[in-house]
Amino acid sequence: MSFFRFIFGRVRGFRVLDIAALAVLAVLAPAVYLTKAGAGDTRADIDRVEQQIGESHTQIRLLQAEVAAEEQPERLASLSAQFKLQPIAANHEISIETLGDIAQQSAPAPRADPLVVAQAATAPVTPGAAQTVGAR
């Protein structure tokens, strides 16, 4: 029996080719449906993201308008007059190289913990015993 005779032959009144085409159709129909449903979900996600992008653009425009309103020279001048602010004098400006020196000079000295100092002051002194400040 040749291959072509089998494909075009009849089995119980049906052509094998018709049965194979029906099987392919039975597999493709759900596959196409699932693909289209997935594409619909993807399209909904795309629409949602595009809406978020539009909202972000609107928020950016609002923030840019707010910055422009806050940076108006008239407003800044009135604030500086209200708080009696003046431009920095030239002798108060420093270079980048001297920032480290200024930071070291103005660093606060470490403070002692008041609880440790109080415990050390009230602890009895035993001759020959090692002193441990702050030991509990």
Query: How far apart are the termini?
Result: 99 Å
| Unreliable residue runs | none
What percentage of residues falls in helices of 4 or more residues? 55-70%
Please report the number of helical segments.
5
- Strand residue percentage: under 5%
Question: Could you write a compact summary of the structure shown?
Answer:
With 136 residues, the protein is mainly alpha-helical. 64% of the residues lie in helices and 3% in strands.
Q: Can you describe what's shown?
A:
With 136 residues, this protein is mainly alpha-helical. The chain has a domain of 81 residues. Helices cover 64% and strands 3% of the residues. It is built from five helices and two strands, in the order αββαααα. A two-stranded antiparallel ribbon has the order 1-2. β1 and β2 form a beta hairpin. The model has no long low-confidence stretch (mean pLDDT 81).
What secondary-structure arrangement, pairings included, does this model have?
Blueprint: H1 3-8, E1 10-11, E2 14-15, H2 16-70, H3 73-82, H4 99-105, H5 114-122
Antiparallel strand pairs: 1-2
Key features?
5 helices, mainly alpha
